[in-house]
């Protein structure tokens, strides 16, 4: 009986820890994405779809290098440190961090050399040679980001998500301020002079914006190093009290990191590689269908520069969920706590659907109003990309599932499965995208359809694998049906408010904002009406206790 009670308490504590960590990273991530919108939206309005066509390949290339350098190793750090401190071996956890730090610095230096000196060739391969200058401008960030991620992996391993969250916000603030400032000055030729006279305003504006990533990474690293030094004394004290365990060699630790990190890195790199490969595929498809090069670049810039920044915003919440899930699942897996393992996996999937469904439906229903709200100065481009945006929005549901389940599989040591499934997805996306984009009537809508189809298939494959290796059983009513009903009601309210109550006037910003706000409130209420989330689960989220108390004030107690 005591063992059963202990298991229940452990399940609840690990569940609360992981949900709290996900919430902290989710809030920080939401702030980062909002700041990113503050960055991408005015940037797109300033340099236009063609300028964004220069910026996007540079950013996608940079993202591929960043993912290769920073995705798998921080997860490996968090996993190995979590396993070490679970048994009280803080010294081993510190050795993992120190070895990983130098490994990531080396990888970052190599990445910088490749991107900076190979920018011209990489841009030419993508059929957008104007992306060379922005690529060179963003390359120095690769010297900093890997080191920054090493610190973040350390804090995730000890399940302290706050330093990571703070550094993410600081990094993005610096990126937005300096990126937009430099982008504006270079685009309007206020600075640069003869040094950049050979480049067009669009190229220079994109390069200035890209260099903001370097300044942002430096700011994030500075604040995280400061936090690390503040807590070093306390952690050193724990190291001195560590259990006397046999110390692994540096080579052994590197092998363990590689075993964990390589499959995760390959899996994480699939999406940015997919985006990168999509550039020449979409461009070639548009050119083959009869569009001239300038129009093709403009069309590509519409979907990559106007639509994708908005589509990516909800993903930050599910990505935070996945990041927090890995150490929580790893701890349960290490302690052979099957009940806690299933609980965390099932709960994370429910949260993923409760996030993904409303975001997808809301953006699809109000596709054109949202785009006109955000890109009022680019009216024709916003209207033109709205159908593709609506298709991409539906894919948010499946992206949320994919990210969540990948975190669960990584936590139980099955990192290779998401990689294989994403490889299948990327092949399907490339083939479908090229076929559909080549049709003049579809053009960039074909790219959106290719993305949607790919993620549907990957989500199905990942769900099957998760059930097999974690023992999770996703309750259809709690995971899909009840949140689906709440989402459907929200979608009807959003559409009705904008198109019926407010008359659906084109570019009516106030109507769009009010419709979104009311729909969000309706969805929150419907979650409790449909019993998609319980009060006990809400309490585990930071600030949830206050929400429950507020709800109780307006909910009459039942008399027996």
Quick one: how many beta strands?
0
Terminus-to-terminus distance: 32 Å
> What's the rounded overall pLDDT mean?
82
The dominant shape is globular
Structure description:
By secondary structure, the chain is mainly alpha-helical. The protein has helices spanning 2-70, 72-86, 90-117, 119-125, 132-138, 145-157, 162-187, 201-240, 250-288, 293-311, 315-334, 338-365, 367-374, 379-411, 416-437, 444-470, 476-501, 509-529, 535-539, 544-554. It folds into two domains: 13-474, no CATH class; 488-560, no CATH class. The protein contains 20 helices and no strands. Helix 7 (162-187) runs antiparallel to helix 8 (201-240) and helix 13 crosses helix 14 (379-411).
Give a topology summary.
Elements: H1 2-70, H2 72-86, H3 90-117, H4 119-125, H5 132-138, H6 145-157, H7 162-187, H8 201-240, H9 250-288, H10 293-311, H11 315-334, H12 338-365, H13 367-374, H14 379-411, H15 416-437, H16 444-470, H17 476-501, H18 509-529, H19 535-539, H20 544-554
Helix pairs in contact: 1-3, 1-5, 1-7, 1-8, 1-9, 1-10, 1-11, 1-12, 2-3, 2-6, 2-9, 2-11, 3-6, 3-8, 3-9, 4-5, 5-8, 6-8, 7-8, 9-10, 9-15, 10-14, 11-12, 11-14, 12-14, 12-17, 13-14, 14-16, 15-16, 17-18
